[in-house]
## 1
Amino acid sequence: MKKVNNIAVLTSGGDAPGMNAAVRAVVRTGNYHGLNVYGVMYGYRGMLTGDIFPMESKSVANIIQRGGTILKTARCKEFYEAAGRKKAYENLKKFGIDGLVVIGGDGSFKGAQKFSQEFDIPCIGLPGTIDKDIAGTDFTIGFDTAVNTAVEAIDKIRDTADAHDRLFIIEVMGRDAGYIALHSGIATGAEHILIPERKTDIDDVIDQLLANERRSKMVNLIVVAEGDEFGGANEVARHVKERMPQLDTRVCILGHIQRGGSPTCIDRLIASRMGYAAVDALIEGNNNVMIGIVNNKIQYTPLDKAVKAKQKIDAEWFKIVKILAS
Ligand code: ADP
């Protein structure tokens, strides 16, 4: 017995490449099971304003390869308030919606959790964030694309750094999580990687740069997560310039290019699989869980446990960075 008949899907909070692939999977899997599927524009804001429309297979044609989200995304203050959520509920009810798929980060999950506890509309979350900092899943939609964008950009920076014998300090996204920095730094052969999860002794970094200078190794890349303890690449550069004014030091902040672009194969794959699993979860009567992939298996995690998680980053990675950059 199907537990739902009319489901809605929305994208909320920070955007991430692959969200479109997830929307496509929800719509087409829903249609396959004979459900009516509705799209909600601009995340929770569209629930409040009633910006809701029916979707069919055709509505999601030609989007699997597109970055951004056709449903748009937004942050919505009113959804923090019970009155706002009630208005949202009433709008969904006008369409007979009895199940909701929320693609977003942990903020969006907090909203979904409150909503599903207050009203009779079950909610399923899909982790859409470039930071890969959500507990209960090995993958988040958008991380692989963001990290590959960073790698491509850093490779280009290395070329120019090499031509001029420069030190480049490159800032990548990651306010609370250093995964983009760690993965892109290792993949581009960075000399140092600074992330929020790990304390860095700036004197060690400078001592190593001085040692490199003594052996005429002039090209160095330092990859910094925006949320590192020093406050980003400009601050790290200030420390380095103070101690090593002779070095030709440049800063490059990659910024929003990391959010855009065509999703990689991995992001399309996990978004498709998670979107498909979300509809299954609603049909089976699940509520208030996030769909994750752990050890290549779909896993449900209660939304209140699928929070931003500082994961332990194995110290061995930093040994590898040091050895391989020597
Ligand atoms: P992300 O989902 O990327 O973490 P945000 O933290 O901005 O992004 O959350 C997206 C939206 O989810 C918010 O604008 C708000 O509408 C809703 N939301 C976030 N936290 C809560 C909360 N504690 N209660 C109710 N709604 C919330």
## 2
Amino acid sequence: EQIIIATNNAGKLCEFQKLFAPKHIKVTSLKDYPQLGKIAETGMTFEENATLKASAVSKQTNIPVLADDSGLEVDALNGRPGIFSARYAGDHDDAANNAKLLSELAGIPLEKRTATFHTTLVLMKPDESKLVVNGELRGQILAVPRGNNGFGYDPLFLVPEKQKSLAEMTSEEKNEISHRGRASQKLLKVFDEWW
Ligand code: ITT
């Protein structure tokens, strides 16, 4: 059995490989299918964008697909960058995105820098039937990055209960509590029945 993770993001793929390891399903990703074209994320919600990615890939490959659309919703920025998190400061440039986030929040104290990390997962079969799950993690945006693990906004995202940024956690620690980890746990619970 096989599943394609419809992502070009190496950090996401790495987390899914660990989360799916107990299932003994072969996990591939878009880098194994270089012939597939770029997918335009034109939706206005996480679910729309995850569905666009999943259906584009499952139609062309005839293999079940898991797509992840995620984003960071910062309360002091009225929920921005949200679905635009990957393109906040340009095109998929983590360093530029983090710099922009820091400058938008300059001068705001930590207790007012609350934020939610959101993930929507869409698991889709080639007949386009789909399973949708969501996961969220609340935290605070640091003024100075901490840690070297993870990817994307992880060095700026403090998990108050742990007093650690996501980039200071191992992938196991992060997967246990993260938006993506929580959504994946929900998915894995119903996976066998749905599959
Ligand atoms: P794919 O669409 O190919 O999956 P992407 O990076 O474009 O990859 P999204 O459209 O879902 O993914 O954008 C999510 C953005 O949020 C992107 O900038 C990520 O780096 C960031 N992000 C998502 N999950 C994250 C996590 O667990 N930790 C830190 N940053 C994360």
